[in-house]
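Write out this protein's structure.
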Amino acid sequence: MSDVENILKRIQSHKGVIGLIVMNSDAMAIRTTMDNSTTVQLGTQMQSLMNISRTAVRDIDPQNDLRVMRIRTLKNELVVVRDKEHS
């Protein structure tokens, strides 16, 4: 099993984790544990939100960049991590 597989398995095993989506730079799911419609909906929305937030960070400081975004709602928590290879 690859390092990536081990990391994904470890994340998925945490209490309360209901799903995992790994996307490429075009917001296409590479791996997902969620149904297709949820994957497409979340992927599209998170890519859009990440891009808007990244622009805001770079407007404040052009030498800075957004790497991780954590969103907590009343019901859920989303963690979005941007890989430097896909910037």
